[in-house]
Design goal:
This protein has 159 residues and is an alpha+beta fold. It has 2 domains: 3-95, Winged helix-like DNA-binding domain superfamily/Winged helix DNA-binding domain (Arc Repressor Mutant, subunit A, Orthogonal Bundle); 102-158, Dna Ligase, domain 1, CATH 3.30.1490. Helix content is 40%, strand content 21%. It is built from 6 helices and 8 strands. It has helices spanning 3-12, 31-42, 50-58, 66-78, 125-137, 153-158, and strands at 15-18, 25-29, 48-49, 82-85, 94-97, 107-112, 118-122, 147-150. It has a 3-stranded antiparallel β-sheet with strand order 3-5-4. A 3-stranded mixed β-sheet has the order 7-6-8, with no helix packed on it. A hairpin with a 6-residue loop joins strand 1 (15-18) and strand 2 (25-29). The chain starts with a helix and ends with a helix.
């Protein structure tokens, strides 16, 4: 199949996703959007920056343009399919697939201050911390922006 034929198939696979106002679509589910999301899901629990996604699809037979990638990342984040966050010391916004099987109160980012590694922590004990903060301090933690800083195991053991 030639690239032109693949492009025609992509154009034909467009499907509407309706928002609250049924007169106007919230977004379109296109083949490009599907493969962007599939790629991010394939990364599992790790984060990815838009530039990495652009690079990934630039090396494929079926390329997805930079503008299309950025536009779809924003829409997927708005729809709650992706988690979007900034982490100090990392250039650009990071994205991560939102796994519906893991409660938002069980997610947290850990960042090593020495090597810069980002660790995506999914832990049941975090739900208790969120509950305590909300019940005792009337404060709801934004898990999309919560990062704990410290040292990873490798850096801790190397000192």
């Amino acid at each position: 199949m030639t690239i032109v034929n693949k492009y025609d198939k992509l154009k034909q696979s467009t499907e509407l996703v309706w928002g609250n106002n049924m007169n106007r679509p919230l977004s379109y589910n296109t083949k490009q959007r599907e493969i962007i999301l599939e790629y991010i899901v394939s990364l599992g629990n790790t984060h990815v920056r838009a530039a990495q996604i652009v690079s990934h699809f630039g090396n494929k037979e079926l390329s997805v343009g930079r503008t299309t990638i950025y536009r779809n990342l924003e829409k997927l984040a708005q729809e709650g399919k992706l988690r979007k966050y900034n982490v100090e010391g990392i250039s650009g916004v990071c994205y991560q697939h939102v796994d519906d099987t893991v409660s938002e109160h069980k997610r947290l980012l850990l960042k090593c201050e020495d090597c810069g590694e980002l660790i995506h922590l999914n832990c049941d004990a975090l739900a208790e911390i969120h509950r305590h903060i909300y019940q005792d301090h009337t404060f709801k933690v934004n898990t999309a922006k919560t990062v704990f800083y410290g040292k990873c195991e490798a850096c801790f053991n190397s000192n």
